[in-house]
Amino acid sequence: MPVGSTPELDQTLQAYDYSLPETLIAQTPLVPRDCSRLLVVRQSSHEHLIFQDLVTLLQPGDLLVFNDTRVIPARLLGRKVNSELAQPVEIFLLEPRQPLTWLALVKPGRRLKPGAQVEFGPAEHPLLRAEVLATDEDTRGRMIQFKPLVEQPFEDLLEQVGEVPFPPYIQDSGAQPEQYQTVYAQHPGAVAAPTAGLHFTPELLDRLQSQGINQARLTLHVGIGTFRPVETDDILQHNMHSEWVDLPAATVDAIRATKARGGRIIAVGTTVTRALEGACQNGPLTAWQGRTNLFIYPGYQWRVVDGLITNFHLPKSSLLMLVSALVGRERLLALYKDAIAQQYRFYSFGDAMLILPEAVIGKRASDQLF
């Protein structure tokens, strides 16, 4: 459910729109990763640097929190069983519901009614079969049950027959699947990458650590909802998608220790922000596993996060509204306007923004959380 509101909130969807030339939608990642541009947002000014400058922009004692989810090969191309033409079928996995049972989007949907079966792998020796169990009204997707046809774990078969999906706005990319994973990706489960983390290299992580800038991790499995724009004219009517979170005790301890000595919590991406803020909506920050559907927009009272590293987000998206809650909607749109004028690269493979704690105007919660 939506959290927080102020009289100054502009809750009309149109207020979060902007125009972006298609030429600025990055189609390929930069090499090395940390050479992307970085728009640094200060209290009353901003400057254009590069991502490697992060070492000098953060302070010893700060804590960077990363999302270590790993993108799974969620896009499967197969063929319908018992079809004269062996009709091609695409299944896009969204999330597991039970062992070997997934919620998925399918194409063409009209041909995949309950009872339909799809096979994957070589036609002569298929590796995996899927049966449509039911239609899911909330997502317009399908409940799919898989059956391995060879003696291999499902996860191994998924690696063989599936592919890592790129976002729908990436149409002409020579990127390799591993370039759509963070260098610290560990726990499979996401269908999209936490893209703010794509800028980090092992060398940059080491340099940050050597400067006394600490690091901690959590897991939020990014869902397909991250690409979907808000569609309600009144943003307060938006039904936020939920995502699975694992916030370990070690990360909670690191956050508590950082706060106690006056350090700052810098979230690497909007997914980390949602995970940390979602974990303390009902009380003090503690280790936690569960789902969050927290919708953050201007007027939100911040509980954990002090600053943010983030990419540039789609118009009318919940992610744009989250970042607006940190720096204000009007200022954020002005920053985007300047980034466009400066020919920044946008979206998943694009450039980044660092919002320093001094730039945050969002209110802080008064309750004791640490």
Describe, in short, the structure shown.
This protein has 7 helices and 18 strands.
Describe the structure.
By secondary structure, this protein is α+β, with helices and mostly antiparallel strands. The protein has 2 domains: 245 residues, QueA-like; 89 residues, QueA-like (Thrombin, subunit H, Beta Barrel). Helix content is 18%, strand content 27%. It has 7 helices and 18 strands. Strands 2-1-18-17-15-3-13-14-16 form a 9-stranded mixed sheet, with helices on one face. Helix 6 packs across helix 7. It is globular. The chain starts with 36 loop residues before the first strand and ends in a 15-residue tail after the last strand. The N terminus is likely disordered.
SSE layout:
Blueprint: E1 37-41, E2 46-50, H1 54-57, E3 63-67, E4 69-71, E5 75-80, E6 88-98, E7 101-107, E8 117-120, E9 128-136, E10 141-148, H2 154-161, E11 162-163, E12 187-190, H3 202-210, E13 214-220, E14 243-247, H4 249-260, E15 265-268, H5 270-278, E16 288-292, E17 307-311, H6 318-327, H7 329-341, E18 352-355
Helix pairs in contact: 6-7
Sum up the structure in keywords.
370 residues, Thrombin, subunit H, QueA-like, 9-stranded mixed sheet, 6-stranded antiparallel beta barrel, alpha+beta, disordered N terminus, 2 domains, 7 helices
Q: In CATH, what is the class of the largest domain?
A: Alpha Beta
SSE arrangement, N to C: EEHEEEEEEEEHEEHEEHEHEEHHE
Number of discrete helical segments: 7
Mean pLDDT: 92
* Radius of gyration of CA atoms, rounded to a whole number: 21 Å
Q: Return residue spans where pLDDT drops below 50 for at least 5 consecutive residues.
A: 1-7
